[in-house]
Amino acid sequence: WNALHGKLAAYRRELTAALEVHAFNRDVDDTNERIHEKIAAMRSDDYGRDFATVDALLRKQTALERDMSAIHQKLIAHDKDAQNILAKKPPLKHTILDSLKKLEESWKELSQAAELRNECLDKSYKLHKYIDQVKKAEQWAAQLRNKMTSYQTPKTSAEAEQLIAQHAERRAEIDGRQDELHILHEEGQRLIAEQPEHKPEVQRAHKRVQNSEHQLRQTWEAEKASLQRTLEWLQWCDQAAMCER
């Protein structure tokens, strides 16, 4: 009876240990499933179609990396649990080692996918930020051209002189943007060097900025000449009126 009782006790211990191993492996499988969900998200080929969507994807990436940190803490907990279970020399201990190895490989795969996605998103961010800055420069030039040509024809020389003074301020605004436009040009050259696959797109954007600036300066010169002619005509009219008196 004592021998049988001893065998039953040993069997219960082995059964408990085996159940503990199975529970551990299930937990590891759950974690592994979470990792592969993140891998699928990291392998998305959506890197944004404009600055706003890239910015949204970067925020999503930050959230995914927070999830990765939580998963990494889970991996540390699994390692500790495995050490505790293995110390009891349980049956099926090779399955614990297999589970840990599988988990390590999955984590490595996730880390590599995250690193690659970060690189791709960073490149996309730089490209679309540049394109966005180009659009803003074009909008500024168009708005300023509109301001320079949207005024009522002066009826007196005083009004003409006031418009000429305002027009000179527009020139100061154009000149004040030169450093910003120069930096934009340098950023375009840097992008071409870093992302040669986007060279045509960057060159087209740069050409648009150059054209906008050229048209802006042409408009300024044309309006300056027009306002000057108007002033001279009004001054002549003033002198003629004085002579008549």
Automatic annotation (TrEMBL):
Source superkingdom: Eukaryota
CDD domains: SPEC (cd00176)
SMART domains cross-referenced by the UniProt entry: SPEC
Protein keywords: Repeat
UniProt xrefs under Pfam families: Spectrin
Identification of the protein by name: Spectrin repeat-containing domain protein
Species: Ancylostoma duodenale
Lineage: Eukaryota, Metazoa, Ecdysozoa, Nematoda, Chromadorea
